[in-house]
C-alpha cells in the first residue's frame, strides 16, 4: 500500500505539477525569442453600444507560438508577472496599440479608442507614466483615445504610488478605467479613494446560473450602475454573452458592452475589416 500511494504521488506529480512548472520554465525561456520574432500579437475586442455601434476596443495579447499554436493570456500572464517579464511584454503591446491609434488618427478616425491593460507588477519594474507618455509623444496620438485599464486590487494594494500615478495620467488626458470592478476585496473603498473615468464591471456577476443568484446579481449590477452615475463615471459591462443580458443591463442604464454576444477578441485585420470599412 505504501508503494501504491507513493506511485500515485509520483503519477500525480508527473501529470500536473511537474509538467506545469516545466511548461512555465519553457515559456519563460522562450520569451526573448518570442518578443524578438514578434510572436506576441494584439487582438482587439470591440466595445459596443446596445444599438451595435462600435466605440473602441480592448487590446488583448495572444502568443502565436511556432509549435504550440495560439496561447491565451491565462497561460502566460501570471507566469510573466511572477518572473518579472511582464513589463517588457506590456511595453510591447502598448506600443502596438499606440501605433494602431496613430494609424487610425491619420485617417481621421479620431474618436476610436483602445484600452490597454496595465499589470500591477508593471509599477515595480518601470516608470509606467514615463513609458506611456513617451509612446504617446513618439506617435503623436490624442491622449484621450488611450484608455488605461487597471484592476482595483492592483491599485489598492499598490505601494509604488499608483494612486498618484493614475491622477497624473488623468491630468495628462488619458481615460482611466477600473477593470474587473466588483471582484476585488474593497470595491467601494476603491471608489472613495480614487478618481477614475470608467468602471468596467467584472463578468463574474453574469456567470451565475442558479436562479436566485441571478436575481441577486442583477440587483447588485443595478446598484453599481446607479452608483457610477451618481459619481459621474461611465460604466462598461464585460462578458455579455446573450441578448437578454444586454436588454436587462440597458434598462438599468448601461450604455457600453464588451462580450462574446457582440464579438470575441479578433486579430486586427479582422477587426478593421468588420468595423472600419
Ligand atoms: P481582462 O482585462 O479582464 O480582459 C477580459 C477577458 O475576458 C479577455 O480574456 C476576454 O477575451 C474575455 N471575455 C470578453 N468577453 C467575454 C465573454 O463574453 N465571455 C467570456 N467567457 N469571456 C469574455 P483574455 O483575452 O483571455 O485575457 C484574460 C486576462 O489576461 C485579461 O482580463 C487581462 O487581465 C490579462 N491580459 C490580456 N492581455 C493583456 C496584456 O496585454 N497585458 C496584461 N498585463 N494583461 C493582459
Ligand atoms: Mg482588461
Ligand atoms: Mg476585465
Ligand atoms: Mg481580468
From TrEMBL:
Residues 24-277 form the EAL domain. It comes from the Bacteria. This is EAL domain-containing protein. It comes from Butyribacter intestini. The chain holds residues 487 to 763 of 763 of the full protein.
